[in-house]
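Pilot study result, target chain (76 residues):
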Amino acid sequence: MEHHVLTKTTNGSVVGMMNEFAFLADALCDQEGEADLLGLSLRLTDTPCGPLYRRHVRPDRELVAWLRESTGGDGG
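Predicted structure:
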């Protein structure tokens, strides 16, 4: 059995976005029938995300920027 610790969040907007992602995921699953988790996760990466508005807006763009920064690559 694993040990888990829960604590209060320091950023309520992240919790709000997680709730929105869950709602959107439910809606997408209802539209498409059975859940394909990989396909669903790829569709959700294209969703604008409030906590990212000052940076790259969408999770897919944020990931690309983070990978470029962490590997020192220029993407070209």
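One observation from the pilot: The two ends are 45 Å apart (CA to CA). A full batch analysis is planned for the follow-on phase.
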